[in-house]
Specification:
Number of helices: 3
Strand content: 15-25%
CATH architecture: 3-Layer(aba) Sandwich
Protein name: Tropinone reductase homolog
Keywords: NADP, Oxidoreductase
Shape: globular
InterPro entries: NAD(P)-bd_dom_sf, SDR_fam, TR
Largest sheet: 4 strands, parallel
Family: Belongs to the short-chain dehydrogenases/reductases (SDR) family. SDR65C subfamily.
Number of strands: 4
Distance between the termini: 44 Å
CATH superfamily: NAD(P)-binding Rossmann-like Domain
Radius of gyration: 14 Å
Pfam families: adh_short
Number of domains: 1
Order of helices and strands: EHEHEHE
CATH class: Alpha Beta
Length: 106
């Protein structure tokens, strides 16, 4: 059996040093998954079409000590904004992306 770390999490599930992009991670289950990824040690970039909602989530996460969650405003329908998101995330993560979760959009 693997040893648990000080937070009680099984070391097999550590995402320490990993990077993740989660599009649309500010509501519902997606919001919870962003927190779980960060809780397991990943650096997470999320985006939302709604700047106020994104800023509210980022503030809440900082209060919960999830300082490794960052975000940007992006409407994935816009090709230009998708490209800007890719450029921003590539720059922040030095070209290294381990996890991509893209929520469906309508």
């Amino acid at each position: 059996m693997a040893k648990a770390d000080i937070n009680g999490k099984d070391r097999r599930w550590s995402l320490h040093g990993m990077t993740a992009l989660f599009t649309g991670g500010t509501k519902g289950l997606a919001h919870a998954i962003v927190e779980e990824l960060a809780g397991l040690g990943a650096i997470v970039h999320t985006c939302s079409r709604n700047e106020d909602q994104l800023n509210d989530c980022l503030s809440q996460w900082k209060m919960k000590c999830f300082h490794q969650i960052i975000g940007s405003v992006c409407d994935l329908v816009s090709r230009a904004q998708r490209q800007e998101l890719i450029n921003e995330v590539s720059s922040q993560f030095n070209g290294k992306l381990n996890i991509l979760i893209s929520t469906p959009f309508i």
